[in-house]
Design a protein that fits this description.
Helix content: 25-40%
Strand content: 15-25%
Largest sheet: 8 strands, parallel, barrel
Radius of gyration: 23 Å
Strand order of the largest sheet: 7-8-9-10-11-12-13-14
Structural class: alpha/beta
Number of helices: 11
Amino acid sequence: MIVVMRAEATPDQVDHVKNLITDMGLTPHPIVGTDLTVVAVIGDDRKKDGSVLETAAGVDRVLKVLKPYKMSARSEHHMQTTPVRLGQGDGCVFGGTNVSVIAGPCSVESREQILESARAARAAGAHALRGGAFKPRTNPYSFQGLGEEGLEYLAEAREETGLPIVTEVVAETDIELVDRYTDCIQIGTRNAQNFRLLEAIGKSTQTPVLFKRGMWMTLDEYLQAAEYLLAHGNPNVILCERGIRTFEKFSRNTLSLAAVAELKDRTHLPVVSDPSHGTGVARLVPAMCRASIAAGADGLALEMHPDPEHALTDGAQSINPAALSELMPQLARIADAVGRGMLLPEAASV
């Protein structure tokens, strides 16, 4: 921290601020200028409450210097992006050389639906399968997911296609159950500041976490929330920009591609873009997928349903298998153009 004193601050007021800093277990270093005095605070002040200094007499403002998200920050000691692997093979890695794609329906609706989705995702060249067994819904009467039955169907889809699976945890009581089945635990936007849930996941598992940005969160708030997972023991965190709420009405949310680029600069964690939730409009999803890779995203998480018109959840933002098959080779070419790559089966790369 740096404490900026008012121009009229007295020596006694400066001494009082120095004493407060010392009481915090930190070292004050006053710098006297021509017009005003600043007091530099030496030491790791991330766990200190600087607001007590703001109320002291003679203080103009307190400036933070160190980032409050220590473990996720990109720094001279951690410049390279940390790769996170889903599943056992090399086919789905986020933060490495290649761009990976997670595709599948918003929710697991039936055995037939998720198996058809998995086969379509695999045929198109996707690298992982998404599908919610537990769904947090705004309306309590909306479809809430199949629970463990849905997890069993996801596991069967993985067994048949080889695709690692990504599914959401919505409550602390479900962590052990979901972790038993999944290759990647998703934390949705509504739980992005559920700090008890973040702590519990960090403490209880090393399974990779796809952590979605809260629809209301600044990037500082988002990265501090991600710090809960890291600080409590899970280093395998993938960030996901999924759009924020704005005044715009043509889309469900506003996908911030600038946030993708900014996160790549601020953090060593891999960054994924979710154009499905980021727009809420299926016809916009392919363009935003292409733009996301151009902006530097390490991967995509998109919704693909075999029959979007009859989907129980989020059909309006889900592309169909034909659209995914057409999109994947385009994404591979863009990845190549920006110095990345994308692993595709030979049939999908034509």
